Amino acid sequence: MTSQTNPVLLDGKTLAAKIRGELKDRSIKLQKEKGKRPVLATILVGADPASATYVKMKGKACESCEMDSKKVELPDTTTTEQLLAVIDELNADDTIDGILLQHPVPSQIDERLCFDRILPEKDVDGVTTVGFGRISFGLPAYASCTPAGIMRLLAEYNIPLQGKRAVVVGRSAILGRPLAALLLEANATVTVCHSRTTNLPDVVREGDLVFACVGKPNFIKGDWLKEGVVLVDAGYNEGNVGDADYESCYPKSSFITPVPGGVGPMTIAMLLSHTVAEAERKVSAR
Ligand code: NAP
User: Fold this and answer.
1) Residue 170 beta carbon below 6 angstroms from any ligand 1 atom
2) Is 58 among the catalytic positions?
3) Model pTM above 0.85
4) What is the whole-number distance in angstroms between the Cα of residue 133 and the centre of ligand 1?
5) Which of 97, 125, 233, 245 is catalytic?
6) What sequence ranges are listed for the domain Tetrahydrofolate dehydrogenase/cyclohydrolase NAD(P)-binding (predicted)?
7) Which long-range contacts (CB under 8 A, 24 or more apart) does 75-78 make?
8) Which ligand 1 atom is nearest residue 234's CA?
């Protein structure tokens, strides 16, 4: 059986553009009234082309919102100690509001140690264990940007979460786990699935909301879904393909994210949003 009407598309592209417009206004206001321009520092280690593109996109996004980005580029021979020293400098620099360390770093570097060196208040990408712990306890912190973007998207469409069954497929530190924590905080009943979950289609079928966070193209199938499900696909695979099989999932859904144009654009919007919020917080604390 399929839904009688077409699902509503959760349009992250339009929402992200609206958020970025609001951030630009806030940033201009902050400069005019307080002489403060929000600054995001980005650290790129090595020459991975995809990472370089992501960092460039983030820099351009800052420009479009009247924010500054300070780009730090380090060679792929960088050691953990050298990277920690760079992070220490950025932590100590009062002009910097947020720090983004682009993942992944070269394998000789202890990435977790470096992420955790970022001061919690400058952790606008939501990558520190302190930030994750605070989010898990329902305390204020900048959440990991993709989960934060998903929550913002659901809120925009007034999708109820309280008492709903939410099934998150994937448990990564940047996506599945923090998303589960945020959904729990919103009073959903949350199930987190992973590669060792047995009878995955049956578990997914229990979800009023299903979140595809797997990293495998077209992985979630339409016949795994409850009729009228809210399907959020965070996946982004080569060829603009999500983690859910859009064609078979579409007729089962009441709301669905397109790929691209659903979750993806929300991630950078949240990074900018956290940076502006931190700049405002800092200025008001002076
Ligand atoms: P990840 O670190 O590789 O984690 C993938 C998760 O999926 C793991 O928890 C893994 O389980 C689980 N998984 C793998 N195979 C499975 C299976 N057969 N059944 C059930 N679970 C399975 O990936 P990620 O970084 O979270 O990214 C996930 C997806 O989101 C990717 O498509 C990525 O491109 C996308 N993403 C998008 C954005 C954005 O800005 N839009 C940001 C981040 C990620 P185990 O823990 O058991 O290994």
Assistant:
1) yes
2) yes
3) yes
4) 20
5) 125
6) 144-282
7) 75/45, 75/46, 76/45, 76/46, 76/47, 76/106, 77/106, 78/45, 78/46, 78/105, 78/106, 78/109
8) 30
Check if 31 is active-site: no
Cα of 225 vs centre of ligand 1, distance in Å, is 19
Residue 155 has pLDDT above 80, yes or no: yes
Going by pLDDT thresholds of 50, 70 and 90, the confidence category of residue 286 is: confident
Task: Check if 180 has its Cβ closer than 6 Å to any atom of ligand 1.
Answer: no
- Segment 244-268 mean pLDDT: 97
Index of the ligand 1 atom closest to the CA of residue 197: 20
* Ligand 1 in reach of 210 Cβ (< 6 A): no
Domains within the chain, CATH numbers bracketed:
35-122 (3.40.50.10860), 145-263 (3.40.50.720)
